[in-house]
Design brief:
The protein is of the alpha/beta class. It has one domain. The chain contains 6 helices and 10 strands; from the N terminus they run βββαβαααβββαβαββ. The strands form 4 sheets. Strands 5-4-3-8 form a 4-stranded parallel β-sheet, with no helix packed on it. Strands 1-2 form a two-stranded antiparallel ribbon. α1 links the parallel β3 and β4. The longest helix has 16 residues. The radius of gyration is 18 Å and the shape is globular. The mean pLDDT is 88.
């Protein structure tokens, strides 16, 4: 069981929306915040920016600033070679998998004009053109949605993330989901959890007790379809 500190506050279900795919890379947020956001700061891009694309459908004033040093020319060449092989071996038959073969073209079209991808590592130091801290990224920016998904490397910058959260006392957890990429450990905990926060100064929250069960039907989906989604309970 999880500590009650991780239990989301009450948020009416009709205010929650899932953006991104119905698998790993999709996240639940409060839709009332969308038009209040100026910048989406994405730490960890890989080959999936569907969350960001979905978000921008609701807000044309928002821009995306993505940071991922691993997504480069070599990344795309390896990915294209792999996708073509899988396609001819009939391993890419679903519609979205076939579309993914053209991921580089989508990348070029999406990250232009106001949307930017910086090939810089998000880490604990500020090294020009190589590494940048979250504090430096967020400097002089307001009305930000911070999305951190860097494949386990979050632990390297956990201190900075906690510092960022603690500095904004009004941040409240509104959603939790267990990532089922691996089975739960012997204590019943998932390999990783996904948390959504909201600034309660920007959105009025109701002082009600939360009786929601997690995962939430029609909002939450297994990160990996072959594994069962993870039920989360609180002390």
């Amino acid at each position: 069981m999880f500590s009650k500190k991780f239990k989301p506050i009450f948020t009416a279900k009709n205010n929650l929306i899932r953006l991104g795919p119905k698998r790993d890379g999709g996240y639940v947020i409060d839709k009332r915040i969308i038009r209040k956001i100026d910048h989406i700061i994405t730490c960890g891009l890989n080959d999936d920016w569907m969350f960001e694309k979905n978000f921008l459908k609701y807000s044309n004033k928002t821009n995306v600033l993505a940071y991922d040093h691993n997504v480069n020319s070599s990344f795309w060449l390896k990915r294209l070679f792999k996708d073509i092989i899988h396609f001819f071996l009939l391993k890419k038959l679903s519609f979205w998998k076939i579309i993914n073969i053209f991921g580089y073209l989508d990348y070029i079209l999406f990250f232009k004009n106001k949307n930017k991808h910086f090939k810089i590592k998000v880490g604990k130091k500020n090294i020009p053109s190589k590494e940048i801290t979250i504090n430096e990224i967020l400097k002089d920016k307001k009305k930000v949605l911070l999305k951190v998904d860097i494949e386990g490397a979050e632990y390297e910058i956990l201190k900075e993330i906690n510092k960022f959260i603690s500095q904004i006392k009004d941040l409240k957890i509104i959603h939790i989901h267990g990532n089922n990429v691996h089975k739960i450990d012997k204590y019943g905990f998932p390999y990783a959890i996904e948390l959504s926060f909201i600034n309660s100064k920007l959105i009025k929250l109701q002082p009600k007790k939360n009786f929601e069960n997690y995962p939430i039907t029609k909002l939450d989906y297994p990160s990996v379809k072959r594994n069962e989604d993870i039920e989360i309970k609180f002390i």
